[in-house]
Amino acid sequence: MSDSQKLQALTQEFQNIQTELSTVVEARQKLESQLSENQSVQKEFGSLGDDAKIYKLVGPVLLKQEKSEAVMGVDRRLEFINSEINRVETQLAELNAKQEKKKIEIIGLQTQMQEAAAAAE
Q1: CATH code linked to domain 3-120
Q2: SS3 61
Q3: Is there a contact between 67 and 48 (Cβ–Cβ < 8 Å)?
Q4: Coiled-coil stretches, from where to where (predicted)?
Q5: Cα separation of 70 and 85, whole Å?
Q6: Nearest CA among 111, 108, 95, 105 for reference residue 10
């Protein structure tokens, strides 16, 4: 495989990593939005009395729900969202490391190609 083909392959791998990275960043943003929304709901539940009427939207229907059940549901969602955020953060760190490694490989190969071209002159 020639140096230019290696460079092209490395560049393609780098672009693939960038695409994957943007997808993961997008997922992270969605999780942050869900986290914020659920924290608002949790805060709102804190200001409600124990006898407050709470309704849950299930499809096109509003169903009455006990406050304790609703609070537990939101707490579970918050736990899940936080664990997903941690998982995505780990994935982001791994992808950033991969991206940096490819970048160094590309720069090294470009330098090597430049030196070979200069030596050939």
Answers
A1: 1.10.287.370
A2: strand
A3: yes
A4: 7-44, 78-112
A5: 22
A6: 105
pLDDT class of 78 with cuts at 50, 70, 90: very high
In angstroms, the CA 51 to CA 65 distance is 11
**Residue 5 CA, distance from chain mean position:** 32
What tokens were used for 9?
A: 């392959």
Domain locations along the chain: 3-120
Residues 6 or more apart from 34 whose CB is under 8 A from it?
77, 81
Q: How far apart (Å, rounded) are the C-alpha atoms in residues 80 and 99?
A: 28
Q: Token pair 């070979």 is at which residue?
A: 116
Structural element, H or E, at residue 106: helix 67-120
- Per-residue HEC secondary structure of 14-26 comes to HHHHHHHHHHHHH
* pLDDT band at residue 110 under the 50/70/90 scheme: very high
The reported pTM is: 0.81
